[in-house]
Amino acid sequence: MREDKRYVGILFLICFVASLLVSIVYALTYSRIEEREKRQLETSLETSLKEMFPEAAQIEELSKDGFIYYRAINNNDEVLGYILICEAVGYSSTIKAIVSTETNGKIKEIKILEQNETLGIGSKITEEEFLSRFKEKSKDDTFDTITGATISSKAIIKAVKESLKKIFP
Amino acid sequence: MVKNNLWQEFSKGLFKENPIFYIVLGLCPTLAITTSIENALGMSGAVIFVLTFSNVVISAIRKFVPEKIRIPCFIVIIASFVTITELLMQGYFPILVKHLGIFLPLIVVNCIIMGRAEAFAKNNKIIPSLLDGLGMGMGFSLAIILIAGIREFLGTGKILGRIVFRCFSPSFVFVLPPGALLTLGILIALFTRIKKR
Description:
The structure holds 2 protein chains of 2 kinds.
Chain A: H1 2-52, E1 58-64, E2 67-73, E3 79-89, E4 94-101, E5 107-114, H2 128-131, H3 150-167
Chain B: H1 2-11, H2 27-33, H3 37-60, H4 70-92, H5 94-100, H6 104-107, H7 111-119, H8 126-156, E1 158-159, E2 162-163, H9 177-196
Antiparallel strand pairs in B: 1-2
């Protein structure tokens, strides 16, 4: 009995010290981590926006029914096109893509921002051969999926079409 | 004599008692992440780091922890150690997070860490435990880099993400779970054969 109490005491002590240390470190690093993640997201978005419309003087953030998208404007206040961010549930991960369009809703370019699909199969969605299929197409066109990677490619195609429909109904 | 012993504690993990091929521990992460050499390198860094320091910590408190309740104690200590490392890394070394980030949380469930704590660190002094962790970590790394190299090459035709031969059509099965088991099985068989000689 006395032994048991000693065990409980020691285990409690170890857990207590361990959680105390974790809490202290968490409190010290929490704000730094959050700030860094926010900055990282902003810079990655910013560079993609600039790459897609290098001639744009200004990129505005707009929102329609809660869906956030961006509009690129040049020096003469003419709209160059739109940029939208699509999210799709793929085979083994959430796929995030960024799409730029002409003013008439035709796709200019698509880039995959994040994905963790099966290497060698679903990961083919990041290859130029697949991404170039989106060029010049609009929401009502048909897109070819990748043989062997139907789920991943279908998911991203569907997400792109749905996002396009929100802005160009 | 003492020096020789210390060297042995370090070197045994590399080949003779290789954690994957001989002890056959830590297979879940081995099977899961060896789809590319890049992943294997990330995992290696994380395992070497955590294994070495968890061995040191366990060895340092070995006299304080009673035999009967050692397992929960070790788990709590290793898990908090990994969490603290992860938080510090995210806060102060963002470059490391990019390469090791997703592998650190996986390590908590890597049984090599527990295995070495049980089999070695709880009965040995700090310096031998440190060397044991380092050696075992490196042995683990060599093994997963080898497996990942074979799987990446056969499964995608690439090495470190670069296409090597254009004229050869990769067989996907090697990047899928069955390929992991096949590769590991054949390697263990080869290893045992070489060791027996």
